[in-house]
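Re: zinc ion structure - here you go.
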Amino acid sequence: MRQTWEAGAIMKDDEIRELGRAKLSDGTLLNQIPVIASDAIPGAPTRILLEGGGPFPDPCTVCNSRPTQVRYPPSLTFHDRCHAIWQDEVLKSRHLSN
Ligand SMILES: [Zn+2]
């Protein structure tokens, strides 16, 4: 079985975007971007640590392939590209609801 290192090898941006939208609406994905923990911001409301620089063995929350490069413990993992698309969709949905 061939190993897929990048979702980009098999999926188009539009397909990833559709999956991301579906998972935003069913609650699998957060509809806000977690606040990245930083000692430079005392009292930051949400301490979710972004871990970069995988590969991590966890499947991507958006497209389910692995390995992944970005992780918000305990349960959200992404490819770099899926991560960027998710953030883009979160910002868009906010804009629409305002
Ligand atoms: Zn992915």
